[in-house]
Amino acid sequence: MPPVPLTPRPRAFPAVDQADEDGLLAIGGDLLPQTLRLAYTHGIFPWYNPGWPILWWSPDPRCVIDPSRFTPSRSLRKRLKSGVFTITVDKCFTQVMRLCAAPRSYANSTWINEEMIRSYTELHLQGLAHSVEVWNASGELVGGLYGMNLGRLFFGESMFSRETDASKTAFAFLMHLCAGWGFPLVDCQLPNEHLMSLGAFTIPREQFMTVLATERYRESPDWRPVQAINHCTPF
């Protein structure tokens, strides 16, 4: 089935079972904060290359991780015990996004453009989007991640690393938070080797949507206590 065309400021997205075999559901629309929130609420996320129209996805299967079952690797546990990193939450959300958008060794660009940065930053100001930052002993931002929180679910978007295990440390801390808050799943969207090495797995889209239908309406946790302090490893 071809992707469903969207007008700007869409009031609804098509049902996710209309997505094609790759998970592509719709094309067009906009990246306004209210559109992004509507999309996440219905298990849909944007992902497209520079110069392309906006593409909206809901893949089957869906890549997720259960934070209560997350176990750091032996090498990561050793790094965490060393105490070389300090962790903050929501200290510099936009900077994390820009570093996630920076060229990688395997790609000259990412899908994170200025329009996305503006919209997710607005969602951050609304208390819906959050970041985890990792700092080295010199006070340099060397790793981090960002994503969306709706109810008792976190939707991971992207992460970056400038030192060994920095992004894994951010990920491990996110798992620590989400497990403590009783999140049944963290959405990782699409599987890749790195995520699978961290313990991610895939579930049928229908199962993901069932969890989403319940958890999105639960009360979101209060992020302010974890925003207020610097966190040391191990945590």
From TrEMBL:
<protein>
    <recommendedName>
        <fullName>Leucyl/phenylalanyl-tRNA--protein transferase</fullName>
        <ecNumber>2.3.2.6</ecNumber>
    </recommendedName>
</protein>
<dbReference type="InterPro" id="IPR042221">
    <property type="entry name" value="Leu/Phe-tRNA_Trfase_N"/>
</dbReference>
<dbReference type="InterPro" id="IPR042203">
    <property type="entry name" value="Leu/Phe-tRNA_Trfase_C"/>
</dbReference>
<dbReference type="Pfam" id="PF03588">
    <property type="entry name" value="Leu_Phe_trans"/>
</dbReference>
<dbReference type="GO" id="GO:0005737">
    <property type="term" value="C:cytoplasm"/>
</dbReference>
<keyword id="KW-0808">Transferase</keyword>
<comment type="similarity">
    <text>Belongs to the L/F-transferase family.</text>
</comment>
<dbReference type="InterPro" id="IPR016181">
    <property type="entry name" value="Acyl_CoA_acyltransferase"/>
</dbReference>
<keyword id="KW-0963">Cytoplasm</keyword>
<keyword id="KW-0012">Acyltransferase</keyword>
<comment type="function">
    <text>Functions in the N-end rule pathway of protein degradation where it conjugates Leu, Phe and, less efficiently, Met from aminoacyl-tRNAs to the N-termini of proteins containing an N-terminal arginine or lysine.</text>
</comment>
<dbReference type="GO" id="GO:0008914">
    <property type="term" value="F:leucyl-tRNA--protein transferase activity"/>
</dbReference>
<dbReference type="InterPro" id="IPR004616">
    <property type="entry name" value="Leu/Phe-tRNA_Trfase"/>
</dbReference>
<dbReference type="GO" id="GO:0030163">
    <property type="term" value="P:protein catabolic process"/>
</dbReference>
